[in-house]
Design brief:
The complex is a heterotrimer of chains A (about 270), B (about 475) and C (about 325). Chain A has about 270 residues and is of the alpha+beta class. Chain A folds into two domains: about 1-80 and about 250-270, Immunoglobulin-like; about 100-240, C8orf32 fold (Roll). Chain A has four helices and 13 strands. In chain A, the strands form three sheets. In chain A, strands 2, 4, 5, 6 and 12 form a five-stranded antiparallel beta sheet that branches. A four-stranded antiparallel beta sheet of chain A has the order 3-7-1-13, with no helix packed on it. In chain A, helix 1 crosses helix 4, helix 2 (about 130-145) packs across helix 4 (about 170-180) and helix 3 (about 160-165) crosses helix 4. Chain B has two domains: about 10-210 and about 305-340 and about 405-470, no CATH class; about 340-405, Dna Ligase, domain 1 (2-Layer Sandwich). In chain B, helix 2 packs across helix 6 (about 165-180) and helix 3 packs across helix 12 (about 325-330). Classes of the chains: A alpha+beta (about 270), B alpha+beta (about 475), C mainly alpha (about 325). The interface of B and C includes residues 242, 261 and 263 of B. Chain A: It comes from Roseinatronobacter bogoriensis subsp. barguzinensis.
Chain lengths: ~270, ~475, ~325
């Protein structure tokens, strides 16, 4: 499937700020599930650093704008050819050993409720294959946290989302990571894009899911929000330990001021 | 009476060779002259501003580390062996770091458990796959050694991040030379004052490939509230490089720049004295204000070199320590010259059992602890202390390792009543860049309390000048 | 040189100069208060002095009534008042401590000792301290430090930044002091030329350690125009705006030579000097002394900003 992406993030500041500095993880890397046909990231007026690939195989770019500004616009345009690989990440060049993804962060630290969820879900399944256990956990997370926009916010941790009993894709991914770790499976957070599905349910086009490492198969994506594994409707941007670590844009404002953020993402499937 | 501790000055045959040259000096020193000299030394340290702050103790923030005038002496042949052993270890530790951030051959070969390395907090995912210039991760390796016999040295721990204390090595010598010049005229003590030049050369040798001129090297300090600030400013001054704080640097495009009165100046090598977590809020702790936003991106795209490399700490973890002899064999194909102290990993059930049964005879340490805090010296502790500690150990065994109580050697030390043996250790500083270098000497720490085995300055330890007799 | 180092040297000098000015203001208030009650009495004069520092509101919030003892405490000891002598010396010492390696041991000693003495003063029984002792101590301390700088510091860029700090701060302070007297202090226009008026002028000159110099230069007669000329346009008086401007230019020119390029700060300083060198006192009064001084304060602050943008942020390419 050919997907086109248009992703614009505008930051507007109440009064001029001294500039911005951002680290972008906004360019997808090639793998079996996705082939990049065209990709372009623009930040008018900014100095774009040389793009490099980190150990996780993600493209990273430094963007700096060292002059007073009142607004900044990051625009991503691209065309990607996708293939359904049943969520399996193949042909992705990376160097980070899977066991490094066993560590928890403040955002994925499990609480009692998460431990209980794992215990209940895997009860009697200790000897089941890892793949099966991963699927069970993803399904359990989807059930424990009904999709409810607004129930959580950008900084909600996995434990907090569990207490809330609802969440969005970010919460699903972080809770699933915590669960996988408890089951001794490496897991990480993936950010990317999702082409709105045709069943009519609304979805965020900027999307996130979890990847769980299954011995013998490698990294496999699990989208608990949509109760599926990523398919040809997904574009994978990059990964990290949690939502913050894997954020497509990490940045800071030099000489801060109140900002309003406006994001537009449009993903469309092209007619072939 | 047989002393269970090796006395570095006297053995069963009497005065040992390296100390012969000091015989006339201390024996003929009248008590009042000694007092005058001791006061003079203190005055010099105060004037140089060499003070030391102890964390969480309050009291005088400008405290001096006690300086003992009696030097500790190594013969040339003793040092030769130490030097080879230290360099060997520094090379192996760097080879290990290069490997675990690349293919991890030592783990694939089953010589070291994967989780010990990859689940270690000090393992930085952000630098996996990145090869720093010349493949060097730890540019200054501080190796803590103790001696238990004429030829018996043990490595207590390795310090691969930013070992401190080298300023004392340099100042101790400076003060001794000012106070007792004739000792140096009459004896061939190998000089240590080349350290700063070597350090600068080492740092310059790892400038990034993108640097096409004389590299600009800076020392990054957390600021003047840090307890080691004096050392930072001292080293920067000796090397003739700028002492910068995070706010003095900024990232623009692919490079890191220093704010100067002549405008931004490109920085090529950063000798940092701040921890990984604080280096870059865009990569690590987002609340850090000590670091430089965007620095890790510049580093990973080859715009600047950070010394020591982020992630180097995984090599000096106390749990990894056990495997250093294995690293030497694996990477260098050599037999380790310096021995490790036998260590029990409390994470292993068998080891834990042994430690719990023999806790009164062992030294038990936290895996990530430092500065002599959070440790139990079994033979020196009372019953209640041991019980409290045993409970902590049982609650979280993997947080602890244990070692036998070592019979640390003693060196004569000036005390109230005259001269008496006190326990010492040694920290030499090995420099790794294009070459592997070691100045002849190091920091000798001495436990000033009679019988004490704890030499940490935060626990009442002092320092001594360390002499290596120059080769013929 | 690191911009942060330059900034610390620049601000160290500004704080030192500011401590001196606050002491001089304190002296001015003290002397005025010795005068028999006129036009609201000393309360009014203290309020004028606090106004000149922009700190009247803060004072009233904290102390309420304008009692002389309180005004003295506020101006000398109060660490919550950022321009008190104690605040300024503490800040200057902190700046100096950060850049200690850029200072000679004599300069560091002078600053550090003054800080220790200040702490000793703070510990003394307040009633045993009279204003003249406090102001004398401050002026002596300031002179000692400045002397150490002049006689021991290398004539490098650091020295220039210290002196720029002094020049910029001093111009600001002279303009403010003159403005206080002229615009704020006199109860009403009816008092112009009165005994009170003359007394205040003399006091101002004394506070600036300038009354004898003024008498020599202008033959002893007090007139607003002559005093204004003295404090603004006389190049012989080291605190006149013209003198400060000449100094600022000199040091900026040195920096230009050291760094091998001229800067916008140099241009701004030259423009200011151009005006002051050409000006006649009649022009000043035509514009209105208060208006002129307000404009000078603003242009001087602009120069300070230019220096900061060019040298102290490290971003000017």
């Amino acid at each position: 499937m050919i997907l086109t992406v248009y992703h614009k993030t505008s930051y507007d500041f109440a009064s001029p700020v001294g500039g911005i500095l951002q680290s972008h993880r906004l360019t997808p890397a090639k793998c079996e599930a996705q082939k990049i046909i065209e990709w372009q990231v623009d930040v008018p007026g900014a100095v774009m650093g040389e793009m490099f690939r980190d150990g996780a195989g993600d493209y990273i770019q430094t963007v700096s704008l060292r002059m007073p500004v009142t607004s900044i616009e990051v625009t991503v345009r691209g065309i990607v050819e996708t293939t359904d690989t049943s969520g399996i990440l193949r042909g992705h060049r990376e160097r980070v050993p899977p066991r490094a993804y066993m560590r928890d962060t403040l955002r994925t630290e499990p609480n009692r409720a998460i431990r209980d969820l794992v215990d209940e879900t895997l009860h009697g399944k200790q000897d089941a294959p890892e793949l099966e256990r991963a699927h069970l956990l993803a399904a359990a997370v989807a059930e424990a946290l009904p999709y409810r926009p607004g129930a959580t916010h950008a900084h909600t941790t996995a434990a907090e989302a569990m207490s809330e009993g609802a969440g969005v894709c970010q919460d699903h991914a972080q809770v699933l990571i915590a669960c996988a770790h408890l089951a001794d499976m490496p897991a990480r957070y993936v950010s990317g894009y999702l082409n709105a599905t045709e069943d009519g349910t609304p979805h965020e086009a900027s999307h996130a899911w979890a990847e769980i490492y299954v011995a013998g198969l490698g990294w496999i994506g699990f989208d608990a929000s949509n109760k599926c594994c990523p398919n040809e409707h997904y574009i994978r941007l990059g990964s990290g330990l949690d939502a913050e670590d894997a954020a497509p844009i990490r940045g800071l404002v030099l000489g801060g001021a109140a900002e309003t953020l406006d994001v537009t993402v449009v993903i469309e499937a092209q007619q072939q | 009476m047989t002393d269970p501790f090796f006395n570095e000055m006297y053995d069963q045959n009497g005065l040992r060779v390296p100390y012969r040259m000091l015989e006339g000096w201390y024996q003929n020193m009248p008590a009042e002259f000694r007092a005058v000299k001791q006061a003079e030394a203190e005055g010099l340290f105060r004037r140089y501003g060499i003070t030391f702050a102890v964390y969480g103790e309050g009291g005088d923030p400008d405290r001096l580390i006690p300086f003992d005038m009696f030097p500790r002496v190594f013969a040339a042949n003793e040092w030769r062996r130490l030097e080879r052993g230290i360099k060997q270890r520094a090379r192996a530790l760097n080879a290990f770091l290069s490997d675990v951030y690349d293919r991890g051959e030592i783990i694939r070969a089953g010589r070291i458990p994967a989780d010990l390395v990859y689940r270690n907090d000090a393992y930085e995912i952000a630098v996996a796959g990145f090869r720093p210039p010349l493949g060097v991760f730890s540019h200054i390796v501080g190796i803590d050694l103790v001696r238990t016999g004429a030829d018996q040295f043990y490595v207590l721990e390795d310090n691969c991040r930013t070992p401190s204390g080298v300023s004392y090595m340099l100042e101790n010598r400076e003060v001794m030379m000012r106070m007792f010049p004739h000792l140096f005229q009459e004896n061939r003590v190998a000089p240590v004052d080349g350290y700063a030049r070597l350090l600068k050369r080492t740092l310059a040798s790892v400038a990034p490939a993108k640097c096409d001129r004389d590299p600009c090297v800076v020392l990054l300090t957390p600021g003047h509230f840090n307890s080691a600030y004096y050392e930072h400013s001292f080293l920067a001054d000796l090397m003739g490089i700028e002492l910068v704080e995070g706010q003095d640097l900024f990232v623009d495009g692919d490079f890191c720049w220093m704010r100067t009165t002549e405008g931004p100046k490109k920085v090529d090598v950063i000798y940092r004295r701040i921890d990984d977590a604080y280096l870059d809020p865009l990569c690590f702790r987002p609340d850090s204000t000590l670091g430089v936003p965007g620095l890790m991106n510049v580093y990973r795209s080859g715009g600047v070199t950070i010394c020591s490399a982020p992630g180097a700490g995984v090599a000096d973890d106390k749990a990894i320590y056990t495997y250093v002899p294995e690293m030497i064999r694996f990477y260098l194909g050599e037999a380790p010259i310096l021995e490790n102290v036998p260590t029990w990993q409390c994470a292993k059930p068998d080891d834990l059992k042994y430690v719990q049964e023999n806790i009164a005879d062992l030294v038990v340490k936290e895996v990530h602890g430092s500065g002599g805090y959070g440790m139990l010296v079994g033979p020196k502790a009372d019953k209640a202390t041991i019980e409290t500690f045993a409970a902590k150990l049982a609650a979280n065994p993997s947080n602890y390792i244990a070692q036998p109580t070592l019979a640390l050697s003693t060196c004569p030390t000036f005390v109230e009543e005259g001269i008496a043996p006190r326990h010492v250790d040694l920290r030499p500083y090995c420099l790794v860049g294009r070459d592997v270098e070691l100045v002849p000497g190091g920091l000798t720490r001495v436990a000033l309390t009679e019988g004490s085995l704890v030499v940490n300055s935060s626990q009442g330890g002092g320092v001594k000048d360390t002499w290596v007799i120059a080769e013929e | 040189m690191l911009s942060r180092t330059a900034a610390n040297l620049f601000w160290m000098a500004r704080y030192l100069e500011r401590s001196e000015t606050t002491a001089r203001l304190l002296d001015l208030g003290f002397r005025n208060a010795l005068l028999p009650n006129a036009g609201g009495g000393f309360r009014n004069e203290w309020s004028a002095i606090l106004q000149s520092k922009g700190t009247l509101q803060q004072f009233t919030d904290k102390y309420g009534d304008l009692v002389q003892r309180n005004a003295e405490s506020f101006l000398f000891f109060d660490l919550e008042n950022p321009s008190s002598v104690a605040s300024c010396i503490t800040a200057a010492r902190e700046n100096a401590r950060i850049v200690r390696t850029a200072l000679t041991s004599q300069v560091w000693d002078a600053i550090n000792v003054s800080y220790q003495e200040l702490k000793a003063l703070t510990r003394r029984e307040r009633s045993s301290l009279e204003v003249p002792e406090l102001t004398d101590w401050t002026l002596r301390t300031a002179a000692l430090i400045r002397g150490a700088i002049e006689t021991t510091q290398l004539r490098n860029d650091g020295y220039r930044f210290m002196n720029l700090g002094y020049a910029v701060e001093r111009a600001d302070n002279t303009a403010r002091l003159l403005d206080v007297k002229y615009y704020v202090l006199l109860p009403s226009v009816a008092y112009v030329g009165s005994g009170l008026d003359n007394y205040q002028w003399t006091t101002l000159l004394r506070a600036l350690s300038a009354h004898r110099a003024y008498n020599w230069a202008y033959g002893g007669e007090l007139s607003a125009a002559q005093i204004a000329h003295f404090l603004i346009l006389n190049p012989k008086f080291p605190r006149s705006l013209l003198s400060c401007s000449i100094e600022a230019n000199e040091h900026l020119d040195h920096l230009g030579r050291i760094y091998g390029r001229s800067s916008p700060a140099q241009e701004a300083a030259r423009k200011l000097l151009g005006e002051l060198a050409e000006a006649r006192i009649e022009d000043v009064f035509d514009e209105g002394l208060h208006e002129f001084l307000t404009r000078m304060i603003s242009e001087n602050a602009g120069l300070g900003q230019c220096i900061s943008d060019q040298y102290l942020t490290g971003e000017a390419r």
